[in-house]
Amino acid sequence: MPVSKLRDIDGAERVRMRIAMAVLALVLAHPALGMAQADRVSDSTSVETARAVYRDVLRDAAAHRLVRHDTTISCAGVELDVKLTVWLDSTGRTRQFTVQGGTEDHAEAWHYYYDREGRLRFAHAVRGAVNDTRQEERVYYAEDGTEVRRITEVKAGPGYPFGPLEPITDPSRWVRQVCLRGR
Length: 183
Fold this sequence. Notes:
- This protein is an alpha+beta fold.
- 35% of the residues lie in helices and 34% in strands.
């Protein structure tokens, strides 16, 4: 609009135009802003579903509807001893998978929770180190397996360079390959 036309606009109309231009500039600069609200709702729903799966697995385990199997894996040539616990439902599907292990200076326990279809929905790590660091990490997954939220908290101590909690979507395959990872 030419400057001469702007002089004919009253003050209130100018304010409205400036606000509209600012909003337009903001949206053009960040096209994903319109989708951010929908993404937050979807992520929130996935987190709530993951929490429900977690509660469901704990309830089924407490009611003895899941069968627990424990084993230890030692890898030849690698300083690695891992304790594994798997909880299976009546169809043989994994509902919870726990990995415990560590080294001389730290220990970790990873807990994975799967929905009734066998999809990973929640993972929780509890870690400790000789320098008195305690850390927890929680990871929430959507139905399609994408990570929707990760929360890592140092509960005590100065910190320790723990790696991020990685997803285990197929516990059987992970067990078959665990010793190969340490080489």
